[in-house]
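Let's sit down with a protein and look at its sequence and fold side by side. Go ahead whenever you are ready, and we will take it from there.
>
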Amino acid sequence: MAAPSSSPQTLIESFARAGQGQVFAFWERLAPDARARLIAEAAEIDLAEIARLNATLLTSGSSAAADLTGLAPAPFEPRPENGGDPAAWAAARAAGEAALRAGRVAAFTVAGGQGTRLGYDGPKGTFSVTPVRGKSLFQVFAEKILAAGRRFGPVPRWFIMTSHANHEATEKFFATHQCFGLDPARVHFFRQGRMPAVGLDGKILLEAPAAMALSPDGHGGSLRALDRSGALDLMAEDGADTLSYFQVDNPLVRCLDAEFIGWHLLRGSEMSSKMVAKSGPEEKVGHFCTLNGQTVVIEYSEPAMQTKSAEREPSGALRYRAGSIALHMLDREFVRRMARDGTGLPFHRADKKIPCLDAAGKLVKPEKPNGVKFEQFVFDALPFAKNPVVIETPRADDFSPVKNADGSDSPATCRADQLRQFARWLHATGVTIPTDATGLPPFPIEISPLFATDEATFVESWRTLSPKPKIEPGLCLG
C-alpha cells in the first residue's frame, strides 16, 4: 500500500517522488467524484513494491526460461488402488475426520472470476452446473460444507475471495439465497488485491483519466488477501489451523476431504496438494516436480517442460504424470508468514496488450504487447513450506472444471462427469442403471451433497431409504 496520507495532495506527492506522477496527469480536469475514485485506487498501490518489480522483472533477460537443470518428478502418495498403503490412507481419513469434529478446518474458495468465457454475464460461482436442478457452483459448495457440519459437528467457516468486478454481485447472490442454509455469520467475502499494469518503461498505465489499468494480482494474491481481510484471525479465534483451498470452477471438488486433511496433519505439512494422473503429455496443467531439493510446480507452458512432459517410464507411463489441479491444504500460520514476508511469494511478469491513455489523454488499443502485468501463483509457496506432501486423487471424483463454453472443461463435459459419478455411486449399492462404455447414463439424475459427498456416504444414505426410489429420468436425491 502507499504510505498513509492525511490528504490527497500528500498521496499525489508520494507518486511524484516515486517517478509515477503521470498517474495524476489529468487531475485538474477531474470532477470531485472522479478524483475520489482515483485517490482510492492510488491508496491501494505499494509504490516500493512496484519499484522493486520494475527493477527485477523489467530488466533485460527477466523473461528468460527457467533453469530446470536437475528437474525430477516429485514423489506423491498413490491411492490404495494404485499401490498405496491402505493402512496409511485409513489413518489419514481418521485423522482428518477428527480434525473436522474438532473444528480445525475452514474452507476457502477463490472466486474472483466472471463467466465471460462461458458466455455468461455474472460471477462464475453463480453459474448453474448440476444436471437436473441446475444448482449454481456456489450452492454445490455450500451444500458440501453444510454436509460436513451435519456429519462431524461444527460447520466450517467459509471464506470466499471475490474481485472488485464481482464482489457486490456475489454478496447479493448469497443474500438472495439465504446463504443456502449456512449461517451468514460464518460465510465471509473479501476482495482480491489488485496490481497496476506498467508500460515497458515501468510507468503505471492509465485506462481512463481517473482510473489506473488495474488487474487482479493472481491466485497467489489470495494469501495476502486472507491476511489483510482478517480471515486468519477469525480462524485463530475458532481454533482452526487448517485451510482447504479450492477454485470456484470445479463442482466435483471434495472441498473438505478427510483423507487430504489427514495426510496434511499427520505429515506436519505447511502446504499439501492433490494431483491427478495427467491424461496425456498435452494436458494443460502444471507438473509437480522436485528442483534443487524442493517441491515445485512447473507450468505446462514452460518451454523446457514441453519436452520433458512427453518423457515416459519403461512401463509406458508418463514420467511427469503428477498434474496440479489447484487443490491445496494450507497451515494458517504459514499463510500469515507468506503474506507478510516481502521476500516470499514471487511475482511473475506477463507481457500484455493493454489499452491505455497516451500523453494527450487519447485511448490507445495496441496491436502488440505494450505493457506488463504482475501476478503471483499460489503454488509458488510450496518451496517455502515445511514437509510439503502431494497425494493422488481420482480425477473422476475430484476434478471436472467448467472453464470453456464448449469443448473440453465445458458445462457439457462437467455435466457428463457428474452423471458418471452418480451412476458409479448407484452401482456401488448394487442398483442397476444403464450406462454407455464411458459410464454415462442415458438420462439425467442428480444427487445432492446433502445426501452424499462420496461413494461411502452414498452407500450409507441409500441404505436408510425405504422404500427405495425408482431409477428414472430426473431422479433427485437430497
About this structure: The first helix runs from residue 8 to 17. The chain has three domains: 8-45, 72-402, 410-478.
